[in-house]
């Protein structure tokens, strides 16, 4: 177990080093979600949403959408390219176990996601009505579950993606659903009914609502909208956390079924 952890940390460090050398990937993974957030706030109406300024409402919910970029797109590209270059096969045949390989990928993705969340928090704190997060442990747990879900979904999608070039296309449907279906610019109640159904089924919705609730200390999960204590935030978030745990199980089954270690031929 200790060896797997050490190997996972080593692989995560290598992943981050390689990403840092790829300026295009670094922009797409780290800066593009924040740019979209800036565009959202620019398009937002000059009014409050559920009792908070529109820009504050949007930015505190941006963490859910960021999972689509920093975890899903990043890891689909990484898994697919390394599979076709036989890197995964060599790693698995060497000292690294499957647990270490997936753990390293997930750890690097979580480090990037945490870095993005910190940048977002700094941005929010500079707003007139911003401030520091109300419940950091709840945000941390939600982030871990969200990264786990999308890392496993990325592993599954890499299995059905023929090569690294096609990975740029295969991720688009999921990314589009994440961008449009996440309740970033408004609560679910303002969505058209078909989009409400879609939004409730995707894992970014509980992440978005929990993160917003944990940051602002107000109820954006249920219908109350009132101020919550830290304990009340945990209680309110339990059903949504349960949804994320279910998604982890579903995504794990998909990854086990679809992920490939060997290159695709033909």
- Structural shape: globular
Number of helical elements: 12
Number of strands: 2
H/E element order: HHEEHHHHHHHHHH
Q: Give the domain tally.
A: 1
Major sheet: arrangement of strands: 1-2
Strand count, sense and closure of the main sheet?
A: 2 strands, antiparallel
Subcellular location: Membrane
Keywords: Membrane, Transmembrane, Transmembrane helix
Protein name: ABC-2 type transport system permease protein
Pfam family, one: ABC2_membrane_3
Gist?
InterPro entries: ABC2_TM, Nod_factor_ABC_transporter. Helices cover 74% and strands 2% of the residues.
Could you list some keywords that capture this structure?
single chain; 266 residues; mainly alpha; 12 helices; 74% helix; globular
Describe this structure in words.
- With 266 residues, the protein is mainly alpha-helical.
- It has one domain.
- It contains 12 helices and 2 strands; from the N terminus they run ααββαααααααααα.
- A two-stranded antiparallel ribbon has the order 1-2.
- A hairpin with a 2-residue loop joins strand 1 and strand 2.
- The longest helix is centred in the C-terminal third of the chain and has 29 residues, at 230-258.
